UniProtKB/TrEMBL annotation:
Interacts with PTK2; regulates PTK2 activation and localization. Interacts with ITGB3; regulates the levels of the heterodimer ITGA5-ITGB3 integrin surface expression. Interacts with P2RX7 (via C-terminus). Interacts with ITGB1; the interaction may be direct or indirect and ITGB1 has a heterodimer form. It is a multi-pass membrane protein. GO terms for molecular function: protein kinase binding. Gene3D superfamilies: 1.20.140.150. The gene is LOC111156062. The chain crosses the membrane at residues 63-83, 95-116, 139-163. It comes from Enhydra lutris kenyoni (northern sea otter). It comes from the Eukaryota. PROSITE patterns: PMP22_1, PMP22_2. Residues 1-16 form the signal peptide. This is Epithelial membrane protein 2. It holds the Pfam family PMP22_Claudin. Belongs to the PMP-22/EMP/MP20 family.
Length: 167
């Protein structure tokens, strides 16, 4: 039982770390001379431009930013609630509250990555002053980590739903 508990805790911490890196790091869209994320666009690693209200479709980027931040916060809250439930739940009860919060985190990261996937080309074309050198590129590791974090938080949420407290 102790090994299973350690695995679940490590899995959850890994999910949170993936969410932090995907949210903070500047590699959602990358190329040879540039990288871009949901916060800024950098060309030649020195010329960085923050994404702000001058940005066309700024509400779309704000939605991606907000849902990524919310997913990270919910994942951390779910971990704290899991630790509390370890000491508070009666034997045989399920970790339903932890599961619900972790699945909400999963939903948020899915929404953020889906919005970025769907709107990326339109965002780049309508903001040519930001993206004049970034048209040719590919999805970066932060974007991929966001989708991996989606899978991890989903699996983690299901594990908490199935898991019962034992001695």
């Amino acid at each position: 039982m102790l090994v299973l508990l350690a695995f679940i805790i490590i899995f959850h911490i890994t999910s949170a770390a993936l969410l932090f890196v995907a949210t903070i790091d500047n590699a959602w869209w990358v190329g040879e001379e540039f990288f871009a994320d949901v916060w800024r666009v950098c060309v030649n690693n020195t010329n960085c431009t923050e994404i702000d209200a001058r940005y066309q479709d700024y509400p779309t980027m704000q939605a991606v930013q907000a849902t990524m931040i919310l997913s990270t916060i919910l994942c951390c809250i779910a971990f704290l609630i899991f630790v509390l439930q370890l000491f508070r739940l009666k034997q045989g009860e399920r970790f339903v509250l932890t599961s619900i919060i972790q699945l909400m985190s999963c939903l948020c990261v899915m929404i953020a990555a889906s919005i970025y996937t769907d709107r990326r080309e339109d965002l780049h074309k309508s903001n040519f002053e930001f993206y004049h050198q970034v048209q040719e590129g590919s999805y970066g590791y932060s974007f991929i980590l966001a989708w991996v974090a989606f899978a991890f938080t989903f699996i983690s949420g299901l594990m908490y739903l199935i898991l019962r407290k034992r001695k």
